[in-house]
């Protein structure tokens, strides 16, 4: 790894987690540098956030490709042109092919709005409410071929209030997403975080199955 950890961020939407990363790196004391932001959607507001921060942006429309494999191959070529040490999924709404995931093994992070392994997939906040959960939250994990199933790095836990709606719960979880994603990227960029054979490793110590837990 170079003196700086080159990061490429993939987005599909508003880019609020991207903004949290941009703001964190703006503090000037992080070894991470966002080299480029790529989106599969032209209307992703995150592209505007990146441009405002002086970060290179690229658009790769998945609808222009015959299949998922062809799109992912083109995406790999675009990403690799920036020589990334780390690829960060920040609301990238595409299921990635096994070949893509293997190509970035150990240097691909995702954030998910639940306390994994609970509630993989969509509508996590509503599902937590319907299950009567006392706690909910968000998780940063290394990406593997199992959807939302890679080794956990860090989770933030929020209490579920009696009068919560899916929207109010989502708002509180988003606040924690914006805390833990920059934290995980800093750990990786500083060489403290890596993916081992048995799971995530922080400061040369295996992390528990839950990852590093932060309670709010």
From TrEMBL:
Record site: Raises pKa of active site His: 148
Enzyme class of the recorded protein, top EC level: transferase
Ranges for domain Formyl transferase N-terminal: 6-185
UniProt-recorded name of the protein: Phosphoribosylglycinamide formyltransferase
InterPro entries associated with the record: Formyl_transf_N (IPR002376), Formyl_transf_N_sf (IPR036477), GART (IPR004607), GART_AS (IPR001555)
Entry binding sites for (6R)-10-formyltetrahydrofolate: 68, 93-96, 110
Enzyme active site: 112
Pathway in which the depicted protein is active: Purine metabolism; IMP biosynthesis via de novo pathway; N(2)-formyl-N(1)-(5-phospho-D-ribosyl)glycinamide from N(1)-(5-phospho-D-ribosyl)glycinamide (10-formyl THF route): step 1/1
EC number(s) given by UniProt: 2.1.2.2
HAMAP family recorded: PurN
Protein role: Catalyzes the transfer of a formyl group from 10-formyltetrahydrofolate to 5-phospho-ribosyl-glycinamide (GAR), producing 5-phospho-ribosyl-N-formylglycinamide (FGAR) and tetrahydrofolate.
A molecular-function term among this protein's GO annotations: phosphoribosylglycinamide formyltransferase activity
A Pfam entry, by short name: Formyl_trans_N
Family membership: Belongs to the GART family.
Catalytic activity: N(1)-(5-phospho-beta-D-ribosyl)glycinamide + (6R)-10-formyltetrahydrofolate = N(2)-formyl-N(1)-(5-phospho-beta-D-ribosyl)glycinamide + (6S)-5,6,7,8-tetrahydrofolate + H(+)
Entry keyword annotation includes Transferase: yes
SUPFAM superfamilies: Formyltransferase (SSF53328)
Binding site for N(1)-(5-phospho-beta-D-ribosyl)glycinamide: 15-17
Keyword annotations of the record: Purine biosynthesis, Transferase
């Amino acid at each position: 790894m170079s003196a700086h950890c080159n990061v490429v961020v993939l987005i599909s939407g508003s880019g609020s987690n991207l903004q949290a990363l941009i703001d964190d790196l703006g503090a000037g004391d992080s070894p991470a540098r966002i080299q480029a932001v790529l989106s599969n959607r032209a209307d992703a507001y995150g592209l505007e956030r990146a441009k405002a921060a002086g970060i290179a942006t690229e658009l790769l429309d998945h609808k222009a490709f015959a299949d998922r494999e062809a799109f992912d191959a083109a995406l790999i070529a675009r990403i690799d042109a920036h020589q990334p040490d780390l690829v960060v999924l920040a609301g990238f709404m595409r299921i990635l092919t096994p070949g893509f995931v293997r190509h970035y093994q150990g240097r691909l992070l995702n954030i998910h709005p639940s306390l994994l392994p609970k509630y993989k997939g969509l509508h996590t906040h509503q599902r937590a409410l319907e299950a009567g959960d006392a706690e909910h939250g968000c998780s940063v994990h290394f990406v593997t071929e199992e959807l939302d199933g890679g080794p956990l790095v860090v989770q933030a836990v929020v209490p579920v209030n009696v009068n919560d709606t899916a929207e109010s719960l989502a708002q509180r979880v988003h606040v924690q997403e914006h805390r833990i994603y920059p934290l995980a990227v800093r750990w990786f960029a500083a060489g403290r975080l890596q993916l081992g054979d048995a799971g995530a490793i922080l400061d040369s110590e295996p992390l528990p199955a839950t990852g590093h837990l932060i309670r709010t």
